[in-house]
Amino acid sequence: MNQAMEYKKVIYIHQYKALTFDCYGTLIDWENGILGVLKPLLLAHNTNLDDAQILELFAEFEAELEKGDYIKYREVLKRVVQKFGERFGFEPTADELNSLADSIQDWLPFSDTIEALKTLKQKFKLVIISNVDDDLFAFSAKHLQVEFDQIITAEQAKSYKPSLNNFRLAIERIDLPLEQILHVAASVYHDIVTAKSLGLSTVWVNRRAVQKGINTTGSAISQPDLEVPDLKTLAALSSAK
């Protein structure tokens, strides 16, 4: 039995009309984007951390900042850099403070993302629900090469996932019954738990199943309706008879 057929036993994807996606970590390879900025920045300040340490601290600082009163994601990333400086005893320059947000325009999709989105676009409405600013996502949209039917950002919701607010705004705009919406995400903490609590079916894109890496998506206990190792597998499901 091939992998797609094995997954097909778990969920029947053709019952859905809209697929909602987390972006960073699901469609865009944000870990390499983060490391490409923070690793040399830290080394410039005589701080030598391995990839795991950098990504775990990033996740810690980001989650802390997103729990408070809403601030734009560009400011979140600026303060993440500041917190690295506070933790390791250095003062980032103005350019360094802006370096993470400025680098988003260069963060690239995973190798299977574009082809999978193009395949899925033939059968489903595609929607983004992302913890980002409108202008920052606009950079990523150019890399993704498909037209999304709706784009819901943290800037529009004035809150960050795992807040219910972001998903409720998306559901309102999509204007379909819950049973016709399938949420696709790499983060159990930010996405799967909240989406399921609202009655949405969920797909966990668990790239960790085939790629060795660090958990920057947060941990939480929740059972997705479907687990796939990549978007290529999800797209194959949509094409299966």
UniProtKB/TrEMBL annotation:
Transmembrane segments: none annotated. It holds the Pfam family Hydrolase. This is Haloacid dehalogenase. GO terms for molecular function: hydrolase activity, acting on acid halide bonds, in C-halide compounds. SUPFAM superfamilies: HAD-like (SSF56784). It comes from Nostoc flagelliforme CCNUN1. The lineage of its organism: Bacteria, Bacillati, Cyanobacteriota, Cyanophyceae, Nostocales. It comes from the Bacteria. Keywords: Hydrolase.
